[in-house]
Design a protein that fits this description.
Blueprint (H helix, E strand, L loop, with lengths): L19 E6 L2 E7 H11 L2 E6 L6 E5 L1 H18 L5 E6 L5 H16 L3 E7 L8 H14 L4 E10 L2 E8 L2 H5 L16 H6 L1
Parallel strand pairs: 1-4, 5-6
Antiparallel strand pairs: 1-2, 3-4, 6-8, 7-8
Amino acid sequence: MKNENFKGQHRINEQIRVREVRVVGDEIESKVMPTRDALKLAEELGVDLVEISPTAVPPVCRLIDYSKFLYQLKKKAKEQKAKQVKMEIKEIRFGPQTDDHDYNFKLKHAIGFLEDGDKVRAYVFFRGRSILFKEQGEVLLLRFANDLEEYGKVESMPKLEGKRMTIFIAPKSKKDKSKKVEKPVTPKAEKPEDDSAKNEA
């Protein structure tokens, strides 16, 4: 694994020119000592003296294998980057009188976008006199949102701006998906008593 991005960011070993440093490390008690003694200790342990906090007084240095130190930094940066999810907005366009085949095709695409963690902006574009069908467009978008209920949640209801009626649907988080709707238990209906049995008695 390459660690070039972090090289040169820290002073190590003979690059540390201050008179004394605070030394920390695994299984080592934190203590202030002359830099030459800290370098000697690092050599005895077969590790590097790495300056991790140059602005402290005195500067803090860690006794650690420098390549291992770089690996840990890179790993930590990678984990932080993974947490910062980049959400894209994908557009789905409808006409006010979209047929079922086209609708299902676009629904399938929207499901894929939401499963990938992207937000969906679905809109109906009204051309010319088709603006007369704006109620039909609203019904279409609400149906679309309803069909995506398992995969996303509506951020804003259908809104008409100019010739466009738009709805935003955001992907559901893992918490949202894990919430299962409990179905109410319907009590079993009791069988009616057989009147003919009573009459025979």
